[in-house]
Specification:
Blueprint lengths: L11 H31 L5 H24 L6 H11 L4 E8 L4 E10 L2 E5 L7 H14 L5 E5 L2 H13 L18 H12 L2
Parallel strand pairs: 3-4
Antiparallel strand pairs: 1-2, 2-3
Helix pairs in contact: 1-2, 3-5
Protein backbone atom coordinates (compact mmCIF):
# COMPACT_ATOMS: atom_id res chain seq x y z
CA UNK A 1 0.00 0.00 0.00
CA UNK A 2 1.39 3.39 -0.93
CA UNK A 3 2.13 5.92 1.79
CA UNK A 4 -0.93 8.09 2.40
CA UNK A 5 -3.25 5.42 1.02
CA UNK A 6 -3.47 3.22 4.11
CA UNK A 7 -6.92 1.76 4.69
CA UNK A 8 -8.61 2.75 7.90
CA UNK A 9 -7.13 6.25 8.08
CA UNK A 10 -8.98 9.55 7.94
CA UNK A 11 -9.16 10.88 4.37
CA UNK A 12 -8.55 7.48 2.79
CA UNK A 13 -11.66 7.45 0.60
CA UNK A 14 -10.90 10.84 -0.99
CA UNK A 15 -7.25 9.93 -1.57
CA UNK A 16 -8.23 6.52 -2.95
CA UNK A 17 -10.68 8.10 -5.43
CA UNK A 18 -8.06 10.53 -6.78
CA UNK A 19 -5.43 7.78 -7.02
CA UNK A 20 -7.84 5.43 -8.82
CA UNK A 21 -8.57 8.02 -11.54
CA UNK A 22 -4.87 8.86 -11.95
CA UNK A 23 -4.07 5.18 -12.39
CA UNK A 24 -6.90 4.76 -14.91
CA UNK A 25 -5.60 7.73 -16.92
CA UNK A 26 -2.06 6.36 -16.92
CA UNK A 27 -3.16 2.87 -17.96
CA UNK A 28 -5.22 4.24 -20.86
CA UNK A 29 -2.57 6.73 -21.97
CA UNK A 30 -0.05 4.01 -22.86
CA UNK A 31 -2.15 2.15 -25.47
CA UNK A 32 -3.38 5.46 -26.93
CA UNK A 33 0.23 6.62 -27.37
CA UNK A 34 1.14 3.26 -28.96
CA UNK A 35 -1.81 3.59 -31.37
CA UNK A 36 -1.00 7.21 -32.34
CA UNK A 37 2.73 6.51 -32.72
CA UNK A 38 2.09 3.47 -34.95
CA UNK A 39 -0.41 5.44 -37.05
CA UNK A 40 2.11 8.27 -37.56
CA UNK A 41 4.98 5.90 -38.38
CA UNK A 42 3.02 3.54 -40.66
CA UNK A 43 0.69 6.14 -42.10
CA UNK A 44 -2.36 3.92 -41.54
CA UNK A 45 -4.46 2.62 -38.67
CA UNK A 46 -4.53 -0.83 -40.25
CA UNK A 47 -1.50 -2.41 -38.60
CA UNK A 48 -0.71 -4.90 -35.87
CA UNK A 49 -0.08 -2.14 -33.33
CA UNK A 50 -3.78 -1.17 -33.51
CA UNK A 51 -4.65 -4.62 -32.17
CA UNK A 52 -1.94 -4.30 -29.50
CA UNK A 53 -3.36 -0.91 -28.47
CA UNK A 54 -6.94 -2.26 -28.28
CA UNK A 55 -5.88 -5.20 -26.11
CA UNK A 56 -3.73 -2.82 -24.07
CA UNK A 57 -6.85 -0.81 -23.16
CA UNK A 58 -8.29 -3.69 -21.11
CA UNK A 59 -6.35 -2.98 -17.89
CA UNK A 60 -7.28 0.70 -18.15
CA UNK A 61 -10.96 -0.14 -18.65
CA UNK A 62 -10.83 -2.42 -15.62
CA UNK A 63 -9.28 0.42 -13.61
CA UNK A 64 -12.03 2.81 -14.76
CA UNK A 65 -14.60 0.45 -13.21
CA UNK A 66 -12.62 0.58 -9.94
CA UNK A 67 -12.40 4.36 -10.13
CA UNK A 68 -16.15 4.66 -10.67
CA UNK A 69 -16.75 2.45 -7.62
CA UNK A 70 -14.28 4.54 -5.58
CA UNK A 71 -16.11 7.71 -6.68
CA UNK A 72 -19.30 6.56 -4.97
CA UNK A 73 -17.76 7.25 -1.56
CA UNK A 74 -16.19 10.33 -0.01
CA UNK A 75 -14.34 10.90 3.24
CA UNK A 76 -16.14 11.27 6.55
CA UNK A 77 -16.92 14.53 8.32
CA UNK A 78 -13.86 16.11 9.98
CA UNK A 79 -15.79 16.92 13.16
CA UNK A 80 -16.81 13.27 13.60
CA UNK A 81 -13.17 12.25 13.17
CA UNK A 82 -12.03 14.72 15.86
CA UNK A 83 -14.80 13.65 18.27
CA UNK A 84 -13.91 9.99 17.78
CA UNK A 85 -10.21 10.67 18.32
CA UNK A 86 -11.03 12.47 21.57
CA UNK A 87 -13.22 9.60 22.84
CA UNK A 88 -11.18 6.56 21.78
CA UNK A 89 -8.25 6.87 24.17
CA UNK A 90 -5.77 4.18 23.10
CA UNK A 91 -8.32 1.94 21.38
CA UNK A 92 -7.54 1.08 17.76
CA UNK A 93 -10.05 2.74 15.42
CA UNK A 94 -10.49 2.26 11.68
CA UNK A 95 -11.97 5.14 9.72
CA UNK A 96 -13.85 5.30 6.41
CA UNK A 97 -14.76 1.66 5.98
CA UNK A 98 -16.90 0.32 3.15
CA UNK A 99 -17.64 -3.32 3.92
CA UNK A 100 -18.66 -5.21 0.81
CA UNK A 101 -21.30 -7.92 0.60
CA UNK A 102 -23.05 -9.62 -2.30
CA UNK A 103 -26.33 -7.78 -1.74
CA UNK A 104 -25.01 -4.34 -0.77
CA UNK A 105 -22.12 -2.33 0.63
CA UNK A 106 -22.09 -0.96 4.17
CA UNK A 107 -20.39 2.38 4.70
CA UNK A 108 -19.25 2.56 8.33
CA UNK A 109 -17.52 5.82 9.28
CA UNK A 110 -15.51 4.39 12.17
CA UNK A 111 -15.00 1.04 13.87
CA UNK A 112 -13.24 0.41 17.21
CA UNK A 113 -11.93 -2.88 18.57
CA UNK A 114 -11.69 -3.72 22.28
CA UNK A 115 -11.29 -7.38 23.25
CA UNK A 116 -14.39 -9.19 22.09
CA UNK A 117 -16.20 -5.92 21.29
CA UNK A 118 -16.39 -4.27 17.87
CA UNK A 119 -18.38 -1.04 17.82
CA UNK A 120 -18.96 1.22 14.85
CA UNK A 121 -20.91 4.23 13.66
CA UNK A 122 -22.50 5.01 10.32
CA UNK A 123 -23.81 8.38 9.23
CA UNK A 124 -25.20 6.86 6.02
CA UNK A 125 -29.00 6.74 6.39
CA UNK A 126 -29.22 4.01 3.75
CA UNK A 127 -27.21 1.55 5.84
CA UNK A 128 -29.17 -1.01 7.86
CA UNK A 129 -27.08 -1.07 11.07
CA UNK A 130 -28.34 -4.51 12.10
CA UNK A 131 -27.48 -6.11 8.77
CA UNK A 132 -24.10 -4.37 8.69
CA UNK A 133 -23.27 -5.70 12.17
CA UNK A 134 -24.37 -9.21 11.17
CA UNK A 135 -22.25 -9.08 8.02
CA UNK A 136 -19.12 -8.02 9.95
CA UNK A 137 -19.80 -10.64 12.63
CA UNK A 138 -20.16 -13.35 9.97
CA UNK A 139 -16.99 -12.32 8.12
CA UNK A 140 -14.95 -12.40 11.35
CA UNK A 141 -16.49 -15.73 12.33
CA UNK A 142 -15.46 -17.17 8.95
CA UNK A 143 -11.88 -16.28 9.92
CA UNK A 144 -12.37 -18.06 13.29
CA UNK A 145 -12.91 -14.93 15.41
CA UNK A 146 -16.13 -14.55 17.39
CA UNK A 147 -16.88 -10.91 18.17
CA UNK A 148 -19.78 -8.94 19.60
CA UNK A 149 -20.48 -6.39 16.85
CA UNK A 150 -22.70 -3.35 17.21
CA UNK A 151 -23.14 -0.57 14.66
CA UNK A 152 -24.67 2.66 15.94
CA UNK A 153 -26.85 5.04 13.93
CA UNK A 154 -26.77 7.70 16.65
CA UNK A 155 -23.47 9.52 17.00
CA UNK A 156 -23.88 10.47 20.66
CA UNK A 157 -24.59 6.87 21.70
CA UNK A 158 -21.58 5.64 19.71
CA UNK A 159 -19.21 8.19 21.26
CA UNK A 160 -20.47 7.35 24.78
CA UNK A 161 -19.94 3.61 24.18
CA UNK A 162 -16.51 4.26 22.69
CA UNK A 163 -15.53 6.31 25.75
CA UNK A 164 -16.77 3.52 28.06
CA UNK A 165 -14.67 0.95 26.22
CA UNK A 166 -11.63 3.25 26.31
CA UNK A 167 -11.93 3.73 30.08
CA UNK A 168 -12.35 0.06 31.03
CA UNK A 169 -10.13 -2.97 30.64
CA UNK A 170 -11.47 -5.26 27.92
CA UNK A 171 -12.84 -8.65 28.91
CA UNK A 172 -9.94 -11.12 28.72
CA UNK A 173 -10.25 -13.34 25.66
CA UNK A 174 -8.31 -16.63 25.53
CA UNK A 175 -5.81 -16.30 22.70
CA UNK A 176 -2.76 -18.43 21.95
CA UNK A 177 -1.70 -16.75 18.74
CA UNK A 178 -2.55 -17.41 15.12
CA UNK A 179 -0.12 -19.16 12.79
CA UNK A 180 -1.40 -17.01 9.92
CA UNK A 181 -0.31 -13.85 11.78
CA UNK A 182 2.79 -14.72 13.86
CA UNK A 183 3.55 -12.29 16.67
CA UNK A 184 0.29 -10.34 16.28
CA UNK A 185 -2.10 -9.63 19.15
CA UNK A 186 -5.75 -10.61 18.82
CA UNK A 187 -6.84 -6.96 18.44
CA UNK A 188 -4.24 -6.44 15.69
CA UNK A 189 -5.59 -9.44 13.80
CA UNK A 190 -9.21 -8.26 14.14
CA UNK A 191 -8.15 -4.82 12.88
CA UNK A 192 -6.31 -6.40 9.93
CA UNK A 193 -9.30 -8.56 9.02
CA UNK A 194 -11.65 -5.57 9.13
CA UNK A 195 -9.44 -3.64 6.69
CA UNK A 196 -9.25 -6.73 4.45
CA UNK A 197 -13.08 -6.88 4.28
CA UNK A 198 -13.30 -3.18 3.37
CA UNK A 199 -12.84 -1.49 -0.03
Amino acid sequence: MRAGLEKGTYGYLDRNRVQAWKKAGALLAVPVLVFVAAWIIRGTRENVMTVVAIVGCLPGCNQIVRAILASRYSSMDRQLYEETEAARGTLPVLYENVFTAYEENYRIDCVAVSGREVVGYTSDERVDAGRAAEHIRTMLKMSSYRQNVRIFREKKAFLERLKQLAETEPEPVPFQGDDRYPGWSRDEIIRHLLTAFSL
